[in-house]
Amino acid sequence: MTSTGGPGGGVADLGPLRDQDERRGEQRAWYFYDWANSAFATTVAGVLFGPYLAEVAGRAAVDDRISVLGLSIDPGALPPLVITASTVIAALVLPILGAVADRTARKKDLLAGFAWVGAAAAAVLFFMTGDNWQLGVVSFLVANFCFAASAVFNDAILPLISSPEERDAVSSRGWAMGYAGGGLLLALNFGVVTFPEALGLGTETAVRLSLLSAAIWWAAFTFIPWRGIRNRPPRDVEPVTGGAFSRSFGQLWRTLKELRRYPMALTFLVAYLFFNDGIQTVISQASLYGTDELGFPLGTMLGIYLLVQFVAVGGAIGFGRLAGRHGAKRMILVGLVVWMAIVTAGMLIPAGQLLPLVLLGIAIGVVLGGTQALARSYFSLLIPAGKEAEFFSLYHAMDRGTSWLGTLVFALVYQFSGSYRPAIFALIVFFVVGGLILTRVDTARGIREAGGTVPSHV
């Protein structure tokens, strides 16, 4: 069948999926990749990796310093610097992968392939023991890159299995599934890490087993979208010549040159660069902040992170419904105002007092699901047909689980101040700048630039 409009804003080219039951079946399978990869995002990247890497690196420290590529740094600054390095690598490579994906019919296979490689790398973290922090750094770099790469292909599938009118709801349900899945495994690991003696384990072994469980979860549940989503031939790709990779570079080069034809999509990407870096840095460094600055045990931070996960399920669904009435852009801006209040409160929260920490966790959960889900669906409306993966690769160079400006600022402020409090507050600039740039995005104009039809609520 022919398309009735590009995935940027019109009715997606659903082909045989015009049958509602078949389309909904693919959407249900697609939700499970968020369920699968959130295990890595929560248990590994969100909670356990940072504090455990800092502890392992601390054992190798001399005069409270370790040498990284000839630089002397505090072991506590190592986790955010590793995430920074991972994101720089992603920023260089993901756009090329996106161009490859747009020229192939095998998007779901690329999604699964990167997921399984990433899960294998995450499993290697089980062997990070003693003072061998280098193994942890290399394994995490690979796993975190594959996490971002697989998300490019996953999000590029969204416009292919949903119409623009469905986009916010489908994206929000996917994020809700992710928070539920990641939260469920985190709940199990919370018990393991908090009460290791009941299982006959030491604390370090409990942490390592929890890291391993996330890798297994990620790999196993990826089979559901891999089996349940069908591949589709590429559409409307640029007429460039050469082999597969040379054609991909050619398409990428054309897209980068022609971004000026999509100024609203470009403006949103710049806004997203800022506010998403702030979000990702808060999430990735929250556990480290809670243990080292506020003095809470790791088990308590696991509990708070678990609370955030389950609150975020409702937050994603709630923000999705509100976006249906008020528009995604307006609801993202509301979320950014709340994020500004969160980092301000985080700087002032008293050490060792649980109730303020719980309230802060609830606030994070409410806006975390909403802002992330709506950013994905909103951006999908601004993408021209045939360039879904390529545009989402640019999007994911700045996406969840990766952050480079935010973590770099966080690490530098900590390095020079010796405190995580000014480091967490410094992130407010990312929400302010990102929000101001987002106000410059004309949604209806952006959808028309992408060749789509404007939905009833934007």
Automatic annotation (TrEMBL):
SUPFAM superfamilies on file: MFS general substrate transporter
Q: Domain Major facilitator superfamily (MFS) profile, which positions?
A: 264-458
Q: Where in the cell is it found?
A: Cell membrane
UniProt KW Transport keyword: yes
Q: Which Pfam families match?
A: ATG22
Q: What is its main location?
A: membrane
Where would one find the signal peptide in this protein?
none
Query: Transmembrane region positions?
Result: 77-98, 110-127, 133-153, 174-195, 207-226, 262-283, 295-319, 331-351, 357-379, 391-414, 420-438
Q: How does it sit in the membrane?
A: Multi-pass membrane protein
PROSITE patterns in UniProt:
MFS (PS50850)
Name the UniProt key words of this record, in alphabetical order: Membrane, Transmembrane, Transmembrane helix, Transport
Transport recorded as keyword: yes
Q: What is this protein called?
A: MFS transporter
Q: Which organism is it from?
A: Nocardioides nanhaiensis
